[in-house]
């Protein structure tokens, strides 16, 4: 049995030393360009939107005031009765008061939104009758 071995193309050429060095530099540049494109995509698709969400959350927490209705990440709905440095005191039922860290506020429901929702509910009930 006879085995045939074919070497890499241009393996026997002795004058190809400059060609391999330029192709190596070209491959390095191509890899660097691909890495730059990858990092740019990560910045615009992941990092930038995360910064926007953090900024919006910070503005929401800073604009809290007594009387606002909030929803926590745990699903508790309540009205703010006291605001401290890192926590807020929320009244969630007739006599239940909870102290919640500001980081766990998911949404602030403004009074105007509540009025609109009540109007929509009332108009739906009136249309059913």
From TrEMBL:
Membrane topology per record: Single-pass membrane protein
InterPro entries: Preprotein_translocase_YajC
Residue ranges the record marks as coiled coil: 101-129
Transmembrane annotation, as ranges: 27-48
Biological processes per GO annotation: protein transport
GO terms for cellular component: plasma membrane
Keyword Transmembrane helix belongs to the record: yes
Keyword Transport appears in the UniProt entry: yes
Keywords, comma-separated and alphabetical: Cell membrane, Coiled coil, Membrane, Protein transport, Translocation, Transmembrane, Transmembrane helix, Transport
Pfam families: YajC
Subcellular location: Cell membrane
Protein family: Belongs to the YajC family.
Name listed for the protein in its UniProt record: Preprotein translocase, YajC subunit
Origin species: Fervidobacterium nodosum (strain ATCC 35602 / DSM 5306 / Rt17-B1)
